[in-house]
Design a protein that fits this description.
Elements (H helix, E strand, L loop, with lengths): L20 H13 L9 H10 L3 H13 L6 H11 L4 H10 L1
Helix pairs in contact: 2-3, 4-5
InterPro entries: BTB/POZ_dom, SKP1/BTB/POZ_sf
Keywords: Kelch repeat, Repeat
Protein name: KLHL23
């Protein structure tokens, strides 16, 4: 978007819809520091934004976080979230199926 000959390359301000400013700020900081805080509160939004903006290492870290926190109480919600966003690694799918 910013390096190809797209209109965003020539603008001073770009509106990125659908990403909360805290999540975007975290990803920008990650680009400079290689550190990001993943919490139960931000993991889903962070995963969606990382996928959209192609932060593959952050996306993978979020997926691993979700798998580590998967339990009997949240497995159906996690399954729905993963299915809706097509976030299914082979290991995480097996773990979700274990609870269902």
């Amino acid at each position: 978007m910013f390096t190809a000959d797209m209109k965003e390359k020539f603008k001073n301000k770009i509106k990125i819809s659908g990403i909360h400013h805290d999540i975007l700020e975290g990803l920008v900081n990650y680009a400079y520091t290689s550190q990001i805080e993943i919490t139960k509160r931000n993991v889903q939004s962070l995963l969606e934004a990382a996928d959209l903006l192609q932060f593959l290492s952050v996306k993978k870290a979020c997926e691993q976080f979700l798998v580590r926190h998967l339990d009997i109480d949240n497995c159906i919600g996690m399954h729905s979230f993963a299915e809706f966003h097509n976030f299914y690694g082979q290991y995480s799918q097996k773990k979700v199926n274990h609870f269902m």
